[in-house]
Amino acid sequence: MSNLLRMPTADELAELSHYELGECVRAAFFQWQKTIQKGEDPAESKQIFHAYDNEQLKRFERVKKYLTK
Q1: What is the dihedral of CA 19, 57, 16, 5, to 10 degrees?
Q2: DSSP structural state of residue 16
Q3: pLDDT, mean of residues 28-54
Q4: Which residues contact 29 (CB under 8 A, 6 or more apart)?
Q5: What would the mean pLDDT of 2-8 be, rounded to a whole number?
Q6: Which residues contact 13 (CB under 8 A, 6 or more apart)?
Q7: Spatial separation of the C-alpha atoms in residues 18 and 24, rounded to whole Å
Q8: How many CB atoms lie within 10 A of CB 28?
């Protein structure tokens, strides 16, 4: 994984393993925080973080629904 993440497509998100997605969430979060620390506009890095984070949340919800049936 490169140091800078870009906005993923829906297909790219779907292809990530659980582990890879977790790594992307962490990397995107730190990228977002570095952008803020540098005093740069954090809008794009925030969107990237939320794209990965929302995919992870969707997957957790699917597992939760399956386990609570």
Answers
A1: -90
A2: S
A3: 97
A4: 49, 53
A5: 79
A6: 21, 51, 52, 55
A7: 10
A8: 24
